[in-house]
Amino acid sequence: MKSKNTSSRRKLKNSDSRIWKTPIGYKLYLPLVILFFYLPIVSLIVFSFNETNSLINFTGFSFKWYKSLFRNSTIMDALTTSLTIALISTVVSVILGTLGSIGLAYFSRKQKALKDMILMTNNIPVVSPDIVTAVSLMILFLGIGLNLGYVSMLLAHISFCTPYVVLAVYPKMSKLDKNLVEASMDLGATKTKSLFKVVLPELLPSILSGAMMAFTMSFDDFVISYFVGGSQVNISTYLYSLKKTNPAVNALSTIIILIVAAVLLISQFVQNRQSKKGLQAKDINGSDMRNNNLERKLVPNGCKQAIEVQKADDIMNVIDETENFIE
Amino acid sequence: MAFHNSSLSKKKISFRVKLNPFSFLTIPFLILLIFLVILPFFFVIFYSLSNIEDSTLIMTFDNFVKFLTDPSFWDKLWLSIYFAFMATLMCLIFGYPVAYFIARTRPKIRTIFVILITLPMWVNMLLRVIGLKSIMELVTSWFQNINPNFHIIGTDFAVIFGEVFVSIPFMIIPIYTQLLKLDPTLLEASKDLGNNSFKTFFKVTLPISMPGVISGITMVFLPAATSIVIPKYMGGGLPRYTLIGNLIENYFVKQSNYNQGAAMALIMTVVILAIIFVVKLFDRSEVKIQKTKKQSAKVQKGVVTNEK
Q: What residues pair up with A50 in beta bridges, in sequence order?
C-alpha cells in the first residue's frame, strides 16, 4: 500500500511539471500576495526605529521608542495582564481539557448520545463569532453579579481556550489503545499511575499543540477581553483605546514579532532534530507527517478548520476501512 | 454537580452499564461547559426578553420589536453582510490560486509557503490592522501630491481590503488542505478524455476542493460580518462604517444597554446562521462527489471491475 503511494507520488512529480506549465503568472502573483501579508508588519517594524512619531515619514534611526516603551507603565501593565491571563488560562484549560478528553474517551457506548452532546457543546465557542461569545459571557457575569475585571476576563479566557484543548486532545485520546491502560493496571499500576505513566505521555504532543493554541488564542484575543474586561486593560484593548499613533506600540509589536519568530524557529528546529532521530512518520496518505504537524502548529486560528477537515478525514477513513473489511 | 448526579442516576437505571472511573474526569470540564457556555446562552435570551422600567423587571418583546421594525438597523445589518460578502468573494478569488499553487508545488516549497502565509496570523490582529492602516496612510500621502482629494481610509474599498487582509489565510488554508488530496492523475485522466484545462478545473479540481471552499467561506464570512476592529480602523470614523459589530459594542460597552444589546446580538446571530445554513446546503452536493470519488478509487483498486 505504502509503496504504491510513493510510486504514484513519484509519478505525480513528473506529471506536475506538465500540468504546472500554464500558470507562469504565479511567479509574479505569489510574491505579491506574500508582500501583501508582510508589508504592514515590515512597516510596523521600520517605523518603530523612527526618530519622530510619524508613521509616514522616516526621518532618522533611533531607539527612543523602545526606551519610552519600557518607561510606559500603562503598556507594561497591559502586557503583564495579557501574559498572566494567557498563562493561567492555558494551564487551567489544558488541565480541564485533557481530563475532559480522557473522561469522554471512557464513556461507554450507551452514553454515546451524551458524549456527542458534550462534544457539540464544546464546539459552540469555537464556531460562534467572538462577539457573540463576548456578549453572552458579559451578560452572564453581569447577571450573576460578578464585577467585570481581571477575574471575569480570566474566566472568559478559560472558557474559550478549553474547547481548543479538547479539540486537539480528544481525537488522539479516542484513538488511544485502551488495552495499554488495562495492561498497566494488570501489571499493578494504580489508576493515577497508569494515567500519568501511560495515557499522558501518549497524549503529550497533542496536549502541547493544544496548549500552544490556547496560549495564542488568549494572548491575541481582543473582542472578548474588551467586553468582559471592564476597566482591566490588556494589550489588545490598550491598542484599541489608543486615539493617536504611538510608535512605542510599534516597538512593542516588533518585540512580540521577534519573540514569535524565535519561538517558531526553535520549535521547528526541535522538530527537525526529532525527525532526524529516526521518527519516520508517515500518515495514512503517505505524505510527510512532519510537514503536516508543522503546518498544524503554525495555524493557530486556522485550527478550527484544520480540525474540521481532520475530523471529516477520520470519518472517511473509518468508512473506508469498514467497507474494505466487509469486502 | 447536577451532571454528576444525573450520571449517577443513569448508573442506577441501567445497572448493566458500568461507569468507567476514568469518565468521572470529565466532571470539571462539564461544569465549565454548563456554567460558561450553556448558561450564558439562557442569560442572553432572558436579558433580551426583559427590560427594566421604573426599577422593576418586566418581561417584554419590545427589544426585538424595536430592532425588527427599525429600518436603519436593517440597513446596518445588510451593509455588514454586504461587506462580509464582498470580503469573502475577494478572499475566494485571490486565495484560491494561492492555495492551488501551494498544493501543486514541491513539498519543500510548499512548507515554506504555508509558513509564510500562516506566520502573520501569530501576530496580534490589531497590530496587523494598525500596520495596514499606516501603509494605507503612506500610500495616500503619495497620491495626494497628484490628487489632493485622494483618500483610501474611509472608503468601502478600505473596509473590504482590511477584512480580506485579516482573513484571507482562513480561506487559503482549508482549500489548500483539500487540494492536497487531489490526485494529479485525475487531472491527466480528464485531459486524456478531451477536457480542456478550463473544463478540467470546473469538473475535477473545484468539486474536490469544495469542502475546503465551504469551510473557508464560513471562516471568513462569520468574523468579517461581526468585526468591530476593521470598520473602526478602516472606516476612518465615518458613520457609514459603524457596522453591526460596532452597534453591539455601543450598546454593551458605551451605553450599558444590555437588554436591547442582547436582542440585537440575537437577531444578528439568527440572520448570520441562516446565511451559513444556506451556504452549507451547497455542501450536500459534496456527499455525492465523495461517493463517486470512492467508487473511482475502488475502480483503481480493481475491486469493482465491471461496473458501469
A: A61
Would residue B61 count as lying in a domain?
Answer: no
Please check whether residue A145 touches B, CB under 8 A: no
Q: Phi-psi region for residue A188, left (φ > 0), alpha (ψ -120 to 50) or beta?
A: left
Domains, chain A, with CATH or none? 19-318 (1.10.3720.10)
- Residue B273 included in any domain: yes
Q: Does residue B132 share a domain with residue B219?
A: yes
pLDDT digits (tens, 9 = 90+) for A123-179: 888 888 899 999 999 999 999 998 999 999 999 999 999 999 999 899 888 888 888
Residue B31 and residue B86 in one domain = no
> What residue numbers bound the domain in which B203 lies?
70-301
Residue type for position A321? E
Task: Name B50's bridge partners.
Answer: B59
Question: Do B11 and B154 fall into the same domain?
Answer: no
> Which residue numbers in chain B have pLDDT < 50?
1-16, 299, 301-308
Among A235, A231, A124, residue whose Cα is nearest residue B39: A124
Has residue A96 got a pLDDT over 60?
yes
Could you tell me if B204 and B89 lie in one domain?
Answer: yes
Query: What's the CATH number where B260 sits?
Result: 1.10.3720.10
Flag whether pLDDT at A240 surpasses 60: yes
From B25, B188, B269, residue closest to A102, measured CB to CB: B25
Q: Which of residues 112-171 of B touch A (CB under 8 A)?
A: 113-128, 130-132, 134-135, 137-138, 141, 165, 169-170
Exposure string for A151-162, b = 16+ CB within 10 A, e = fewer = ebbbbbbbbbbb
B76 and B41 fall within a common domain: no
Q: Tell me, yes or no, if B199 comes closer than 8 A to chain A by beta carbon.
A: no
Same-domain pairing of B101 and B213: yes
Same domain, B247 and B286: yes
Kindly report, residue by residue over B231-279, the tens digit of the pLDDT: 999 988 888 898 999 999 999 988 888 988 999 999 999 999 899 888 8
Confidence of residue A296 (pLDDT cuts 50, 70, 90): very low
What SS3 string covers B258-274? HHHHHHHHHHHHHHHHH
- Determine the angle formed by the axes of helices A150-175 and A303-326, rounding to 10 degrees: 20
Average pLDDT over residues A199-228: 89
